[in-house]
Structure formats: structure tokens, C-alpha cells
Amino acid sequence: MSRDFYSVLGVKRGADEAEIKKAYRKLARKYHPDVNPGDKSAEERFKEIQRAYGVLTDTEQREIYDQVGHDNYERGVRGGGPAGGEMDYEDIFRGGGPGGRTYTYTSGGGGNMQDVFEQMFRQGFGTDRSWSGSPFGGQHREQYSRRGRDMQSELSISFSDAYLGKKVRLRDAEGKELEVTIPGGIEDGGKVKLHGKGEQGVNGGPPGDLHVNVRIQPHPYFERRGDNIYLDVPVTFEEAALGAKVEVPTMTGKVQMTIPAGSQGGSELRLRGKGFPHLRGTGRGDQIVRIEIEVPKDIGMRGRDLLREFSNLTQQNPRLGRWN
Fold it and tell me: What's the predicted TM-score (pTM) here?
């Protein structure tokens, strides 16, 4: 039996999105397949972490999950709404009907329910006449075709898929399999629109569209800001002071990068063209490398003596004049 998603990520039920994202990144770094090559147990754990993150960062799915509980959610039970999926007619007139539009009925006197429905179909459901006849009896009335409703779908993809782009398969409202092209450079929350793949129209009306909302899973060590990718790179005190060539990962493989002598903690270096492709137009963002200077915790007596000697040699006081 699968575990509760909050337990999987090690967060409380009331955790906000920032707390969930922080927990995900910590666990993903530990169990990512790139860090544990060939380890099936770590791979399954990583999938479990991804699944939990995908649900708990989706506002709608998290609400359902909290409402029905873990076991019911995994069995496909969904809460909320009238029993049997029925729609209240009051919801239609308040704007809960197809297209989310509000329908207002006005009459100069003696209107009847048939007039209300005819006006509703004229205002919101299209203007093509498709068949005649009165659903309420009485005089002959014309009815109108209606465009199918737009449908919503959500798709979770990896950081790498968002960078490279990918073709994925999903099912439309009728259960038919569709191939969707996710463009490289798409942002978290970006939408892909599939024309004519929503609900079928009524009485010969055109079908609606399918809107695919794309969610991007965080990467264990890369961070995206716009089309730039940020990466924290730890260096030793010696490398920062004297300069060095270090190997850093990018989304397309490892590259050699020069750390200038005298680099400070928090300083940023730029790898041009190593970021996400621009979704509109040509070119790419950059990869920004942030320097983190790692200070050893235990340097021994000899190390301490050398540092004191170095301090006496440089006579450096970085705080001098900073606040005066």
C-alpha cells in the first residue's frame, strides 16, 4: 500500500508550497537516479517523491486529496459536486453552465420557460439552427447548435523535458489517445492548446478545445528563473583565493569553468547560452553559477598555525570602513 503523500515528503498537512518544494528538493537530491545509478530502490523512492509533490503542489488535486483521504484518492474516488455529476439549473443561470457564462432572461411580459431556454441557447450556445420542435409543447420553436465546452487537463513533466521539449501521450474527453508536443522552454503553469479536442458540440456544433496545463517538477540542484538556470557551485578557500578550473554540470553535460583568483562567496559567473530556449523567438538564456566557498570544519593544529601566519601576513580586516 502506498504511503500518505505528506509522510512521503516529511511535511505537515498544513505545509505551504514553499515548505513542500524545499522538502522535495532535499529528497530529490538524495534519491535522484543520477545520484544513484542502477539503484532500483532509490529509483522507486524518487518516483514516489515525484508523485507526492505533483499532487500536493496542485491546488485542486490537493483539495480533493485532503477531502477524500489517501486510500480513496489512490482508488480514484473524487469528492465534491452533486451526486452522480448532476447540474443544478440554478448553477446554469448563475454562470455555472457551459462556457462559464451568466444567462439573463428579460421579457416585456408573459414570457415562459421555453423563451428562457431559447434565449439561453442564443446567448451562449451558438447561433446555428440545427433542428426544430418544442421541448415544452405548444407552438413550433427553433433550437440552436452549441459549441462543445473547453476541457482542462494537467500534465507533470521533468525539468529536463521542459528544457529539451517532449512528445507525450494523454487521453481526451472521450478517452481517445492524443499526442501532445511540449515545446522546449515551456514555463511552469504554461498551457498547450489542442484545438477541437475538448467536448463534442451539440446538434452539429463544433467541438471545444483541450487546454493542457503543464507543471514542471523541480530539479535537485538546478533552479530556473525566467530562461536562466542557476547553480550553486562549492569551491575551496584555496580555489577561491588562487583561482582554479572546475567541472560544473549543465543541462547538456559537464563543462570546464574558470574560477577567477580572488572570487568571493556569492559572486556569480555566467555560462552564455546554457539556459532554457526562448519560447518566443530564437536564442537561449544563460546558466548562472553562484560561488559558495566551503570552509573546512577541522583543519588541525598545523592548519591553524598556517592560517594565523597568513592572517599576520595580510593584515586584512574586511569590516574596516564598512559601517563608518
Answer: 0.59
